[in-house]
Write a structure and sequence with these properties.
heterodimer, A: 115 residues, alpha/beta, six-stranded mixed sheet, 5 helices, globular, B: 331 residues, alpha+beta, Heat Shock Protein 90, CBS-domain, 2 domains, five-stranded antiparallel sheet, three-stranded mixed sheet, 15 helices, 19% strand, rod-shaped
Chain lengths: 115, 331
């Protein structure tokens, strides 16, 4: 699924304005526990999370996460955005709950990272 | 004319645009102009000017009088004087007096703007004192850009070469590259920097992406452990050898009371604020173990903890694939 399509499905807003909307993302994971992201994500995955601190971006970098979606319309603090820009990880904020967003993506055919 | 055509910077292929655009801002006119420049004076005859054009194969020249730029004369002025049947006229009578110039310290983009704004073929370049120091044509800019891009490429090649061949170039019985990072207690803001830097180093050394990921995760967890749990911070050392990376994380206390218990999934002594940040779930050490080919953990309460892990650089199919897929249960 292309990043642009994900953006449309989650009705999200791209916070880091430079991103390749044609980038292909094959699976997604939802987690608020950074250890879980490290353990259960796959390289190139989409991360949905309710946490917005800069460590989320660090974790994403370490876990080779392709893009991050902040749930419930959360706006990350400037440090988080700055770090995301530095690391070249696109960051999206989407207005629905984690459950709703995961559901929308799953329904649209996005695979889970566990598969 | 060809001169006008050559200045179409925007016709460069899309992939090249960014660097070229950067360069026209970075490069100074001084760096790309032609200097010294052939000049004529106002009392040079147009017929002499014609000879100069023929011998030097250029199409125009600045007109200088007592060191000052007073005009510019081009092949078009010559053609006009020929068609008027007056080849004996002086340059001073035919030249353009309102000369558009650029400053040598300006960036090339200023010249590009003037070329397209005024449609001129050449721009005399002045130094800070207003003296003529060179001349600039579209060809000069193209050449300057190509040279700069060539240099970029060359530097890139050298950098890549240096990094990935270090272990072949430098010979010893036992070569290793040691990277040390001091980790401060509670410095949550910078958590992950050491991991990020070690990852970058491994990338530069051409390590396998899977290996980089495993080392990155292990170092990140170790780094967060030092930040979250220690009283005085600690150090992370990565020793990179041709076939393996050894990570040693040490700290000066408080130490782990029960190492065996610390290794149990979900066991954590992290305070609430750390948990709110998404850490301290009691999975860190386990996660490190999963990423490592070897792991040793030793701790003395009141003294400190030493964690040592080894990751082999050549991906060993069995072990790594297993680590990657271990525990597919969702958190």
């Amino acid at each position: 699924m292309k990043l642009g399509e994900i953006l449309r499905i989650v009705e999200g807003k791209l916070i880091t304005n430079e991103a390749d909307l044609d980038a292909e993302i094959r699976c997604a994971c939802g987690a608020d526990l950074m250890s879980d992201v490290l353990t259960h994500s796959r390289p190139g995955a989409l991360l949905l999370t309710g946490l917005t601190n800069p460590q989320v971006v660090r974790t994403a970098e370490v876990a080779d996460i392709a893009a991050i979606v902040f749930v419930r319309g959360k706006m990350p603090p400037p440090e988080t955005i700055a770090l995301a820009l530095e690391k070249g990880i696109p960051v999206i904020t989407a207005p629905y709950t984690m459950f709703e967003l995961c559901g929308r993506l799953y329904k649209a055919g996005m695979a889970s990272c566990d598969l | 004319m060809a001169e006008n055509g050559e200045i179409q910077m925007s016709s460069v292929a899309p992939s090249g645009i960014t660097r070229v655009q950067e360069l026209i801002y970075e490069l100074k006119i001084k760096q790309v102009m032609t200097s010294p420049v052939l000049t004529v004076t106002p009392d040079t005859r147009m017929s002499q000017f014609r000879e100069l054009l023929r011998t030097h194969k250029f199409s125009g020249a600045p007109v200088v009088e007592q060191g000052r730029l007073v005009g510019i004369v081009s092949i078009e002025d010559l053609i006009k004087s020929l068609s008027d049947g007056r080849p004996d006229l002086l340059v001073g009578e035919r030249m353009t007096c309102n000369v558009i110039t650029v400053q040598e310290e300006e960036s090339v983009v200023e010249a590009v703007k003037k070329f397209s704004e005024y449609g001129v073929g050449r721009l005399p370049v002045l130094d800070r004192q207003g003296r003529l120091s060179g001349i600039l044509t579209a060809t000069d800019i193209t050449r300057g850009l190509l040279t700069a891009i060539g240099l970029d490429y060359h530097e890139d090649e050298i950098r890549r070469y240096r990094a990935s061949h270090i272990f072949e170039d430098i010979e010893s019985e036992d070569t290793s590259l040691i990277l040390r990072y001091r980790i401060r207690a509670c410095d949550f803001e910078r958590g992950g920097e050491a991991s990020s830097k070690i990852r970058r180093a491994l990338k530069r050394l051409g390590a396998d992406p899977q290996v980089i990921r495993r080392v990155g995760i292990a170092v990140y967890e170790a780094e967060m452990n030092i930040i979250i749990h220690t009283t005085h911070g600690g150090e992370i050392q990565a020793e990179i050898q041709p076939g393996r990376v050894q990570i040693v994380a040490t700290d000066r206390g408080p130490g782990i009371e029960d190492v065996r218990k610390a290794m149990e999934p979900g066991y954590s002594t992290a305070p609430e604020w750390i948990r709110e940040l998404g850490f301290g779930a009691g999975m860190g050490l386990l996660n490190i173990q999963k990423c490592a080919d070897d792991m040793k953990l030793g701790s003395t309460p009141g003294v400190g903890t030493r964690l040592e892990i080894v990751v082999y650089l050549q991906a060993k199919n069995g072990q790594n694939a297993q680590s990657e897929r271990a525990e597919p249960a969702k958190g």
